[in-house]
Specification:
62% of the residues lie in helices and 0% in strands. It is mainly α.
Length: 248
C-alpha cells in the first residue's frame, strides 16, 4: 500500500468516531502536520522515497489511539486513561489491522516500534539502527508540531516557580507528572529542544522563533524577567550549538 492509500484507510478509521468533536478534529489535523514534518525531516536526511514513506506511515499512525482515548475518557492525559503509544500498538496488532497499511514485515516492525516509542521519556534500548532512526524522526516531528501549535496562551499574572528552571540547567526534558499550569506547559514544550535529533528540527525552532515567542509570552505575564532571559539565553545557545555539531 502506498502512502496515499494508507491515508485513505486512516481517514476511514477516524470516521468510525465522532469527527464533529473539536478535540478529535484537532487530533486529526495534528496527525497530518506531523506527517508533513516527518517528510521534511526524512528528505533533509536524503532518505530514499521508500524510507520517506515509511517515516510518514509511522507519523500517520502514531496517535491512532487518541480517538479511543478521548471518546472513552474525555482526556488526552495518559495518566488518567492509558498510554496512547502502547494502545496504538494494540489497535494496530489486533486482528492484524496494521496489514491494512503495510504488508511488509520489516516495515510493520518499524511502524510498531516508532508508534510505541513516540511518547516515551526516552527510546527503549535494544532497537536496530533503522528502528531507532525512524523512532527519532517521529519523535522530532511530533515535538515540532507541539512546540509550534501548543503553549501559546497564558492568562492572568503568574509567579514563576524557580524549580521549573531546573530542567534547563540540566539539559533534560520535564517529567510529565504535575505539569498542568499554562506557563508550566509552555516551559515543558521549550525543554523539548533537549530531545531533538536532527539539524532540520533545530533550524525549524530558530526559523519559527519558537523559543523567543514563548519566552516573550511568559514574560508578559510574569515579573521574573531575569530568570526568563537566562532560560532564553541558554536555550538559544544550546540550539545553535547542536546545529553546529550536526553540520559537521
Amino acid at each position: 500500500m502506498n502512502i496515499n492509500d494508507a491515508i485513505k484507510e486512516f481517514v476511514n478509521y477516524s470516521k468510525t468516531y465522532d469527527m464533529t468533536n473539536p478535540t478529535l478534529m484537532a487530533e486529526f489535523h495534528h496527525t497530518y502536520r506531523v506527517v508533513e514534518y516527518t517528510k521534511d525531516i526524512a528528505r533533509s536526511l536524503k532518505l530514499s522515497e521508500e524510507d520517506t514513506c515509511t517515516a510518514m506511515l509511522c507519523a500517520l499512525l502514531h496517535d491512532i489511539a487518541r480517538y479511543k482515548q478521548h471518546t472513552m475518557f474525555k482526556t488526552s492525559l495518559d495518566a488518567r486513561s492509558f498510554d496512547h503509544g502502547d494502545e496504538a500498538c494494540n489497535i494496530l496488532i489486533k486482528n492484524n489491522y496494521i496489514s491494512k497499511f503495510t504488508t511488509k514485515p520489516e516495515e510493520q516492525q518499524i511502524v510498531l516500534k516508532a508508534v510505541k516509542n513516540h511518547n516515551k521519556y526516552k527510546i527503549e534500548d535494544g532497537l536496530s539502527e533503522r528502528e531507532e532512526m525512524f523512532c527519532k524522526i517521529l519523535r522530532d516531528a511530533d515535538k515540532l508540531d507541539k512546540m509550534k501549535e501548543q503553549g501559546n496562551t497564558i492568562e492572568g499574572i503568574i509567579i514563576l516557580n524557580p524549580s521549573y528552571i531546573k530542567p534547563f540547567q540540566e539539559r533534560r526534558l520535564y517529567k510529565n507528572h504535575g505539569v498542568t499550569g499554562q506557563y508550566e506547559v509552555t516551559l515543558r514544550l521549550l525543554a523539548f529542544v533537549y530531545d531533538l535529533n536532527f539539524k532540520f528540527s533545530y533550524e525549524f525552532i530558530l526559523n519559527n522563533r519558537i523559543i523567543e515567542d514563548k519566552i516573550d509570552l511568559i514574560m508578559s505575564h510574569c515579573s521574573n524577567i531575569g530568570i526568563l532571559e537566562y532560560v532564553r539565553k541558554i536555550l538559544l545557545e544550546y540550539v545553535n550549538e547542536r546545529i553546529e555539531e550536526l553540520s559537521k
